[in-house]
Sequence to fold (471 residues):
Amino acid sequence: MRIAYDRTKCQGHGRCYALAPELFDADDEGYAVVRTTGPVPPELEKAAALAVDNCPEYAIELVPD
Amino acid sequence: MTDVDRAPIEDWATDFDHTHPDYAARAPEVWDELRDRCPVAHSDRQGGMWLPTRHADVAAIAHDTRRYSSEGVIVSPFKPVGMAPQGYAPPITSDPPFHAEARRLLLPAFSPKEISKLEPAARASCRELLDTALADGADVVDAARQYAQHIPVRVIAEMLGLPREDGDRFRVWIHRIIEAPGARRDIAYEDTLFYYLGQMVEDHRSHPRDDLIGFLIGAEMDGKPLATEHIVGTIGLLLIAGIDTTWSAIGASLWHLAQRPDDRRRLVEDPAVLPFAVEEMLRFYAPVTMARIVADDEVELGGQTLGHRDWVLLPFPSANRDPEAFDRADEFVIDRERNRHVAFGLGIHRCLGSNLARLELTVAIDEWMRRIPDFELADPDAVLWSTGQVRGPRQLPIRLLHPEAL
Fold:
């Protein structure tokens, strides 16, 4: 699975980089930045799912490779 | 807290009143009832206002800045007029296109990285408040008045560059502006928040300081310095929004824990659950109901027709309890893993201070639980909830259990 992140929906709630810091970072204004472009490694799948399931704006999805 | 006795509300669907003491006492029941029976309620009070209660409707309004203006965000009989797109307290009262730049100025100061620097001071403040409250072996503490209400005041006053000794004055203004808007008209201008902040800004201009007021004095939009009304409006917003809200969330969380030994035990035995517990507190006890003014001629919503310039409340706490949006919506689940709660709003007006609020709530619960792991409501009937658009306990006597072990 890969991360699909929609910057136009992101409002900087900051749930993703709090719950999955290996996969997401914050820019200087608090908007999310995806740290990886490739497939999500198996050991981070749980963290990726948490990031998806806690985004109030539905800005993150996991999509098949 | 209300200044006069009021007649009971006969029908919340057609005559609701969010400033009524019965709403303060049982708002979650009102939302649940309305969501089933009449999801977009109406009232002729305050010049005409609407109360959507479903997550989908609240989200749709929050995301629609064309048909719903933020020119007014606190419902009162006095509706702001002719102030869009800047509004009286930018950026919360601003509409596009003014909003984006006014908000962008402030975002870096409230980013997670900047806010995390405040943690040691916030912890020290909580410990000091607990030391004071528990001095002389007290076993009953008013968690709202002796603890929760002071925590955000100290942090935000420091950030903005206002004397923290003025905390009592801030709370008087907050009560007037948020909890009882329009209730009094006999107030001298010299006794208003905006007059006070104007004086503070002038003082910063003559004695420059490295704080948020100083930053805004030096900031520019479109190559021009900010007008004094813009600076005063923004500082007023940050002060009001930064105090009442977090104080309410901390108080409501302690009210919850006082009645739930299972959740107290879980926090003590499994500290890793704290971040999830904080989010569930925010979902279940979201303090803030925002408001908008209908900007179109009319808007269809949930089978109702909203008229031009009507008030619309955005009860984020009701959206957070909508079973269409959350599994087991009516249960507090301390380790909830799927939690898209909207305590901080949705869309372009997402709470600017959300990182600060999370830090303060987390630290306040953590320090309380380290010091007072076991406690109960000293007198459930003495708990008083605020009226208006920010919901939280204003009086919360709590009795320590096993104080001899402390």
In short: Chain B has a mean pLDDT of 94. The interface with chain A takes residues 104, 107-108, 110-113, 275, 279, 337-342, 344, 346-348, 350, 354-355 of chain B (CB under 8 Å). DSSP finds 16 helices and 14 strands in chain B.
